[in-house]
Amino acid sequence: MPGTNAMPLPHKPMDYPQSYYLATATEHPRHSPLTEDLSCDVCVIGAGYTGLSAALHLAQRGYSVVLLESNRIAWGASGRNGGQLGSAHTVFQPDLIRKYGKERARALWDIAEDAKSLVKDLIREHNIECDYTPGNMGCAVTKGDFSYYQEHTAIVRDDYGYGHYQLLNKEETNDISGSNAYVGALYDPTAGHLHPLNLALGYARACIKAGVRIFETSAVQDIRKTDPARVTTANGSVTASFVIVGCNGYLGPLNRKMSRKILPAENFQLTTAPLPDHLIENIIRNRSCLWDSHNQVYYYRLTPDNRLIFGGGLGLPGRHPKGIDKIVQAHMLKIYPQLARVRIDYSWGGTFCNTFSHLPDFGRLAPNIFYAQGYTGHGLALGALGGKLMADLVTGIAEKFDLLASVPQWSIPDSPFLKNQILRLGFLYIGLKDKLRSLQR
Ligand SMILES: Cc1cc2nc3c(=O)[nH]c(=O)nc-3n(C[C@H](O)[C@H](O)[C@H](O)COP(=O)(O)OP(=O)(O)OC[C@H]3O[C@@H](n4cnc5c(N)ncnc54)[C@H](O)[C@@H]3O)c2cc1C
After folding, report:
1. What's domain 134-191+263-354+421-441's superfamily in CATH?
2. Ligand 1 contact via 245 beta carbon (within 6 Å)
3. What are the tens digits of pLDDT across the range 228-285?
4. Which atom of ligand 1 has the smallest separation from the CA of 349?
5. 3-class SS at 17?
6. 20-80+197-262+357-410: CATH homologous superfamily?
7. pTM of the model
8. Which of 14, 70, 251 has the most ligand 1 atoms within 8 A of CB, as the residue to mutate?
9. How far apart are CA 185 and CA 192, in angstroms?
10. Which of 380, 390, 404 to mutate to test the pocket of ligand 1 (most atoms within 8 A of CB)?
11. What pLDDT score was predicted for residue 2?
């Protein structure tokens, strides 16, 4: 019978990387590995936002669910990201309309709104302690970027009735951010930021309460496309009517069809020591999270204990260069030169998962095997929604899943060497573009 992969994958389970998030994580008890042959309605692979959300929504609807994770719960991007819950997609409405037409672009906007609301609803419903703080600000590096934000705002306000965005001029942006790197900003009080690992651990607690059986250090080696499907790990197996795959940027060689659609890359973050009063008074005065229109996006926010978490710097997937703290610090000082003497307490990297369309890639590997991946930096919201939409698909509701599955995605050969060359070229191009754009301000 056909599997989805040619050869078993050797896997050495890994613990959480050292990060500010791990240092401030809520309870994260270990779950034992799978060492038996089980049967269930749905087997979910990967315990990030996608897998946890799928498992939770299915268990709440009465399905028996087994969740298999290679490492620890939210060991991947879900436990290491920037914590920014955004509105919209990575691609804003003017481009979505140009590419897909007015009707589809509107449906995609609605999906992003559903995703944002879902995360906030889950936090409320399951009392998840993750320091959710409202306020999300996109900062424009050039006047052209700011005009684009204006165009996007006009579409969603005038055509969709979304009146929450506020456009800020240069003075307001610089006053709030404490940086003079920007010409204006797009502020959204309905979006915000949170502790990403604690959000995922909260989802996991809700899963367990709903009856999901979670196995950590249980890397799936093969998925048999049979009915029922059979999923195998080194020491056990799960026979299931449905399989849901939520491995995202950490998919590795598990499935070639999925791998051809994505271009995972590494992104780095640091956390400073708590900032002294004279610095904190003039940095992100509205406690919002910020991201910007550099091609190599910078994203940052303050923590409840007044540290700055700053993200920036790209790398090949899974590779962590020496001195991540120094690399990210150099980016941070372009925005906040006043932080030159501040101590860096934590730094880490994580793999995020891009598609060429910059929209997520949803699909079916078989009539009973579904996947969602490639959220291109928007997975905090879209991952939770992707999981829910796959749970809907199990129950026979396909409309929104199929809308996303119908987005055309480029395929590239499943070769790590080729992908790394594409990334290297991409990083060069992005770096050059950012240098040129800095001259346009
Ligand atoms: C540095 C960084 C910053 C980011 N910032 C933001 C942000 O601010 N806002 C935002 O919206 N998004 C952000 N993202 C993206 C976001 O974190 C991801 O889109 C989201 O977490 C994806 O969730 P996921 O569950 O699909 O994948 P992941 O969280 O990556 O989880 C996949 C899981 O699958 C497991 N797995 C892989 N293979 C197997 C296997 N064979 N068997 C079993 N398990 C397996 C992995 O161990 C992993 O735990 C960022 C990402 C990174 C890396």
Report:
1. D-Amino Acid Oxidase, subunit A, domain 2 (3.30.9.10)
2. no
3. 999 999 999 999 999 999 999 999 999 999 999 999 999 999 999 999 999 999 999 9
4. 1
5. coil
6. FAD/NAD(P)-binding domain (3.50.50.60)
7. 0.96
8. 70
9. 15
10. 380
11. 42
